[in-house]
What does this fold into?
Amino acid sequence: MKEFDAVVGDVAIVANRYEYAEFTLPYTQSGLVMIVPVRSKTSNRAWLFLKPFTMSMWLLIVLVNIYNGDKLHSNLSRMTMLVWLFVALVITQTYTANLASMLTVQQLEPDIGSLQSSKAMFGYCRGSYLQRYLVKVLKYHPNQIRKFDTQDEYAQALRTKQVVGVFLEISLAKLFLAKHCNKGFTMIPPTYKVGGFGFVS
It folds into this structure.
């Protein structure tokens, strides 16, 4: 059934394909990653300024300010004020750092480890070796994986939550993220190593 003498392209080197053809050495390394939607950690930003500290910390700050609001009558009260000024500096810096972190850090969703044993649906690229790899190697149930044809289909499925993540090779994942940059998707670890791309002879 030899129709071609060689194949040039992004052909992944996987074990079962050796039964039908021979491969050159990999011309590039490859890996399998998951693309997921990104969700902000902070859904209610109106009260975000209260989040860096607990309620007990806020009460302590108010009480210390009330205590130090009295007139400085003695050396002890002046010494207490100096200590409080230093503590206030530390508290201010801690508050600023925590608030900045809450405003910028994104929470990745979902977590691969917790979802692998659940009934969550995952996507993959039609016509690739990924279906077999996900079932045989990564031990996903066949009912948990769904095939898609195009990048737009991946994006739509992720937006509408038909799937919680899409498995792609790293090179295709980078192309997907470049096309859909700033649209709420990201690539998360771990990276599953595969044989890389090679020419077929």
The chain has a mean pLDDT of 75. The helical segments are 55-67, 75-104, 112-116, 130-136, 151-159, 170-179.
